Amino acid sequence: MIKIGNKEIGKHVKPFIIAEMSGNHNQSLERALHLVDLAAEAGVDALKLQTYTPDTITLDVHTGEFYIQDDENLWKGNSLYNLYKEAYTPWEWHEAIFNRAKEHGLLAFSSPFDETAVDFLETLNVPAYKIASFENVDIPLIRKVARTGKPIIISTGMATVGELDEAVGAARAEGNQQIVLLKCTSTYPATPANSNLATIPHMRELLGTEIGLSDHTLGVGVSVAAVTLGATVIEKHFTTSRSDGGVDSAFSMEPHELKMLVEETERAWQSLGQVQYGPTDAEKDSTKFRRSLYISENLNAGDLLTKENVRSIRPGLGLPTKYYDLIIGKHINQDVKKGTPLSWELLL
User: How far is CA 287 from the centre of its chain?
Assistant: First the structure.
């Protein structure tokens, strides 16, 4: 069993929903704290930050491979350094943000992007850690996080089976078995067509961990579908309003959408139930409205049952309709009125 704070993770409980703030605070602590309030109102289980600085994640270089030129990239025209300078959450804000989350009863943790971030987050006693997709091949970082003994959630974007095996193996080698893998597509935004949710049950069987989804698509449909395939954790970026702008706003949920995500994923989980055939307890009263065989004309004792005086109709209190051909041509043994349910006792 995996437990983060007071929340269990698994198929036996509703999905664990993580609201990812990322850079949507737009460099305003006041806005960041307001985002915490909105996440709590939406009913999520946890709030997540990202812990790095521009200097811990890249170099102060603005040319070549350090400059984003891809026309399809959401952040085209930025250097990596300037992008992360705009997006990072100042470390001195973390405690205030985490404390606001605690006031609301929310769990709060972060994605560290280097070992110094892990050391810093340990001073704040975070209940879990998240490894971002781009860091799932950083084995020293995974080992460092695993050694804390706390649950570790790893996004799987871009990772091969071999790379995932190495990541999970690294955590387990440090004695940490509390591992959740999040199926993830590292495009921003992602599309349903490239989400490949069929991987979720396969990944669970292959690697023997809890599986969830880090969802960069718009809307709630992909996350709901993931729950039906066994996802027990859902992570989504969120913001106050996409129109506010910001580094992640284009693929982030607004508060009403985040609330819908919480509600609809729980409904999807509730609907899974168990393998069930035959009427459920709730359906038993409805069985009387099935079709069955009824006398459809007034008859006298000795009359022949024909297609004109026996019909398959609702309600379902007569003989099952599968006996229709068997009883046609038999005689009735007493006077009966139209609307009498046919039974074996009425036949000669």
Answer: 34
348 residues of the chain, pLDDT tens digit each: 899 999 999 999 999 999 999 999 999 999 999 999 999 999 999 999 999 999 999 999 999 999 999 888 888 999 999 999 999 999 999 999 999 999 999 999 999 999 999 999 999 999 999 999 999 999 999 999 999 999 999 999 999 999 999 999 999 999 999 999 999 999 999 999 999 999 999 999 999 999 999 999 999 999 999 999 999 999 999 999 999 998 899 999 999 999 999 999 999 999 999 999 999 999 999 999 999 999 999 999 999 999 999 999 999 999 999 999 999 999 999 999 999 999 999 999
| CB contact at 8 A, 294 and 311 | yes
Instruction: Report the alpha-carbon distance of residue 89 to residue 241 in Å, rounded.
Output: 19
Long-range contacts of 341-347 (CB under 8 A, 24+ apart): 341/292, 341/293, 341/294, 341/295, 341/317, 342/292, 342/293, 342/294, 342/295, 342/310, 342/318, 343/318, 343/319, 344/319, 347/305
Whole-prediction pTM: 0.90
Cis peptide bond prior to 189, omega within 30° of 0: yes
Domains by residue range for the chain, with CATH:
13-52+88-272 (3.20.20.70), 281-346 (3.90.1210.10)
Cross-strand pairs, 312: 293
Alpha helices in the chain (DSSP H): 29-42, 54-57, 80-87, 91-103, 115-123, 139-146, 161-173, 199-207, 221-228, 255-272, 324-327
